[in-house]
Design a protein that fits this description.
Blueprint (H helix, E strand, L loop, with lengths): L1 E3 L22 E5 L15 E4 L2 E10 L5 E10 L21 E3 L11 H8 L8 E3 L14 H27 L1
Parallel strand pairs: 6-7
Antiparallel strand pairs: 1-2, 2-3, 4-5
Length: about 170
């Protein structure tokens, strides 16, 4: 919706459409299409401010001379990723060339082996899939719900019955 510029940023009169900032804006205003956030005073409904976040990482590497080095990298950026997203079930039947998958436990609902299988099998290969964040490895070790197994067996039975019925219809013709 809007970008609040840093107070030390000069005013811009350039009409070319390209502006090179000297400072990271203190925040940007983003309008969310579907949200349960509270309406913030002074902002339109569904509009939230997003502030830059600082994150520090330790990196370990070996130089060409064989020396082990440990360094620190500090990154300051907005905690946002522009992307097109959809649920695992919406992705069924598709092959997606490059994808970023979030298999962390959702804040509501649940995650099971079927969700994981659908989400992780949509990629065209392990080189083109990335996981968004850490996840609980126990998700891959849990058993399958007996109700889901029973439903799967029921669907196989219906499939067999439909196939047999179709064969009989075709024989009568």
């Amino acid at each position: 919706m809007d970008i609040l510029l840093h107070p030390d940023e000069p005013t811009f009169s350039d009409t070319s459409g390209v502006i090179h900032l000297k400072h990271l804006p203190p925040y940007i205003l983003v309008k969310l299409c579907q949200t349960r956030t509270s309406h913030l005073p002074g902002l339109q409904p569904s509009v939230i401010p997003v502030k830059p976040v600082s994150k520090t990482f330790r990196i370990h590497y070996t130089t060409l001379a064989g020396v082990n080095v440990t360094g620190c990298v500090r990154r300051l950026q907005y905690p946002m990723t522009c992307a097109y997203a959809f649920t695992d079930y919406r992705s069924q039947g598709q092959t997606i060339s490059h994808m970023l998958v979030d298999i962390a436990q959702p804040s509501s609902g649940g995650l099971n082996l079927f969700n994981l299988c659908v989400a992780l099998s949509r990629s065209s290969g392990c080189e083109t899939i990335r996981l968004l964040q850490d996840f609980d490895e126990k998700l891959f070790l849990c058993g399958v719900s007996r109700h889901l197994l029973a439903e799967d067996d029921h669907l196989h039975l219906l499939d067999d019955e439909t196939r047999n019925w179709w064969v009989q219809v075709m024989v009568r013709k």
